[in-house]
Structure formats: C-alpha cells, structure tokens
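lol ok so funny story. i was supposed to be doing the assay writeup but got distracted and ended up predicting the structure for this chain instead. priorities right. anyway since i did it might as well share w the group, maybe its usefull for someone
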Amino acid sequence: PSLHNANLPQQPYFLALGNVEPRKNYPGLIKAYAELKRRRPDTPHLHIVGHKAWGYAVAAQTVVDYGVSENVHFTDYLDDGTRDAWIRHCEVFISSSLYEGWGFPLFEALTAGRPCIYHSGTSQDEFAHGFALGTDCGNPESLADAMETMAFSEATRKQFSSAARTGFLEILKYDLPAELSGALRPHLFG
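and the output, tada:
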C-alpha cells in the first residue's frame, strides 16, 4: 500500500504489535512510556497495533490512569500490507511481551531493519540478541530507560538498525520452515 493509504503517523513513533492480551505486557509498556514522557516531554507517541482482545480494558485503563491518553494510541487489526508499512516506518519497535513462543512481530521488525527493544531472557534471545536492545520489560523503569536510549540516541538506533540489516541476514540462512522462509523473503529490508 502507499504510505497515504496506510494512515501512518506523520511524526516518529514507537510501535508495539500484537493482540492486546495480558502476556503482551501492554500495561507495563504504558507505565514505562508514561515514565519516559514524564522525563522527556518530547517523547514520540506510542502506537499499539492489534486486535483489542481480553487485555484491552486493563491496557486502556492504564493509559487513563497514567495520563497519557493523548500520546498512546490503540490501532485495531491492520491488513498485512498496512502492518508492514507501519513496521517499516516506526522509529523504534518494542516487543514488551514477558512470554513469547516465537516472537514473530519482533522477527518481522528485525527483518525490516528496524531498531528494536525486547524482553531479554526469553526465547526471543535466540534470534534478537545482539540485533535488538534487550531489557527487563517487567520493570517499567528499565523499559523506560531502554526506550529513552533508543528514542533519543540516533547513534544507538543506527547501531541496531545496521546490525539488523547486516548480521540478521545470517539468521535467515538457517533451515527455516519453508512457510516461514517464503513469508519473510519478499519483505527483506524493503
């Protein structure tokens, strides 16, 4: 899709992707965002893209409780092409999930060469370690620190984006299931 059709934000933005359910830790992400916004009023907006599932009521209430309603946006389901455009144009991708079986949204963001933050110590370490900034997403202050580093250090964003664009290709040389490999290859690095 064209960028116009994707309704992309016109300013830099943080992006989290996945159904709004408890394991995604969106209330923790929102608390971290609110802490960063308190420190740095010029913090980019946060967009959470995914079905408004059984964790939505708690996440939406957290936005209200922490006073960031004007800066945190829930975007419901997006088709594949639109979602890809959102990933490719985000300033920083965040996988705040405390538990992931695979972590496909993070994998997609790394495949697109985006600077990413993820919850270290999970299965995502297997492919994200060294290519994305790992932190304790269960600790809102630690997550806020990582978000601040990524949002306000162009050198850090470039470092991780470059690592994803060069070294992450090595991951794709492994014997990925044909379905996964076929799904990713057309989208490599835009």
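Strands lie at 13-17, 45-49, 72-75, 92-95, 116-119, 133-135. The first strand starts at residue 13 and ends at 17.
back to the writeup now i swear
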